[in-house]
Amino acid sequence: MDEQEFTHLADAMLARIERCLDDSDADIDYEVRPGGVIEIAFDNGSKVIVNRHGAAREIWVAARSGGFHFRPQSDQWVGTRDGEDLLRVLSRCLSEQAGTAIELA
Fold first, then answer.
1. Which domains does the chain have, with CATH numbers?
2. What SS3 state is found at 24?
């Protein structure tokens, strides 16, 4: 996959994450930063960072529970360690840090 194709796929997933955050009932503040970065902040001062990493051709998630890397596979983004779906992992990380269930569809 070339960089242009990766950037297109990653930006589409980041836009989907934004829509999911907007549609969520949870009280979440987030900011989209240049270069394919979404910074999600919680009332307790913690953050989750989701970013496009072009050199590795991955989307990275940084949360209290750890760092996670995802690659495009078929029509989804899967974890490089365990094959788990990006939105499932992100939902779990957000829920843990918010202290309430957050489900990104």
1. 3-98 (3.30.920.10)
2. coil
